[in-house]
Amino acid sequence: MDLGHNEVGATSAGLFTRAKRVFGDGTTRATIERDPIPRYMERGEGAYLIDVDGRRFLDLNGNFTTLIHGHGFEPVAEAVSRQIRSGSCFANPTAHELDLAELITTRVPGIDWIRFVNTGTEAVLFAVKAARAYTGRPAIAKIEGAYHGAYDWVEVSQASGPSTWGDPAEPASVPYYRGMPETVLNDVVTLRFNDVEGSVRLLEKHAHRLAAIIIDPTPSRAGLIVPEPEFVETINAMARKLGIVLIADEVLNFRQSYEGASARHGFRPDLFTLGKVIGGGLPIGAIGGSQEIMSVFGTGEKRAPLPAGGTFSANPLSMVAGLAAMSALDHAAFEHLERLGDRLRDRLSDEIAKKGAPFTVTGVASLFRIHAKRKAPRDFREALPSPAEAVIGEALTRAYAAAGVVFPNGAAACLSTPMTNADVDLVVDVFSEFLGTHSHLFESVSHEHS
Ligand SMILES: Cc1ncc(COP(=O)(O)O)c(C=O)c1O
Known about the structure:
Blueprint: H1 10-23, E1 41-45, E2 48-51, E3 56-59, H2 62-65, H3 74-85, H4 95-107, E4 113-117, H5 120-135, E5 139-143, H6 152-155, H7 182-186, E6 188-191, H8 196-206, E7 210-215, H9 229-242, E8 245-249, H10 261-265, E9 271-275, E10 285-289, H11 291-294, H12 316-328, H13 331-355, E11 360-364, E12 367-371, H14 380-383, H15 387-402, E13 405-406, E14 413-414, H16 421-437, H17 439-449
Parallel strand pairs: 3-13, 5-6, 5-7, 7-8, 8-9
Antiparallel strand pairs: 1-2, 2-3, 4-10, 9-10, 11-12, 12-14
Helix pairs in contact: 3-12, 4-12, 8-9, 13-16, 15-17
The protein binds pyridoxal-5'-phosphate.
Pyridoxal-5'-phosphate is lined by residues 64, 119-121, 124, 147-149, 216, 249, 251-252, 275, 285.
């Protein structure tokens, strides 16, 4: 049976019927794409996914950028199957956590000490608490539209919009969920990415209360926009001048280079949060940074200012999986990803220019986003799709699905090491065809801007 990639598969439909009986909205992750229902996966093979109805997809989601080596990566599979036979977790440390810690501290300038947790959310939560414990101040500054996981303070203004975001010179702190405490909103200062003048003004105004500035060097949901050098230098300088802890949230963007994203763009953080790729596909998070600030977690003598435990933290399965994945991420692997990413972004941009289509491509290294906008966005406000642009985004994701490509809508798409030029060229060809077949949708975008 040859089922179209966009048709609802009978097996997925059956599973979703069962799922609605136990999950309310049908899944346990708000971020799962559904069109109109989620596609259930049977297995992954390298760069590809095979769904329960037997259809094969090139995977540009990679579990939200986690799977930098694709699915079923042999060194990870081997390390995990060996480890699980000798125990999955102990109330004791293992040598495996040292191996992964040494690899990361050796690679990343600015990470002297590190601690492992289970998710990026948890890493961010502990980094913010560490900044508070170090400075004795309660508040944080964050970038409008940036996603940092599910800790209340970093959720502020994550999903604001034109009706709520307020004055561009002083963005509102917008609740993410109904009932978010007023005290949380009062303790978050919202900055705009690449806004030098506004960031200086707002950071100076609130400095006496600010424990941390948390910044994702290339915030994916806020547009996957590369930071401008003057903005990077401003954030570095203001953090130093005002004694505010600079946290680089590299949970997603650590995959940008051998030394991570801050090193690539020139941020000089005091603390880093990591996750995703460093776990090789198993749950993980990490907080790292200077010895001085990481000392709040304890130095062994007395009760730590900020005690941090966790039943599954540094569990040996995540540690061996992470070590296998990270060891394979050598300079050659990064060069391969960089070449593929450059080829993809260049070829997509060429198609846009050739057809004069209202699109732009953002991203860097193995990451990219396609925006239905003529002008490259500089911040979340410019990146947020208008209603007509959102329709185009959905249509593009559907067109990719129809061609057998999983392409995330509104989040970073990513490449993985098993991919080749042929995979990149498929992504470009589908886009090129989409520009030809969907030009009627682009009219409305031109009108919206006129
Ligand atoms: C920048 C950033 N920070 C934090 C998180 C949260 O990580 P997790 O989903 O592992 O909790 C994510 C997840 O996508 C992220 O992209």
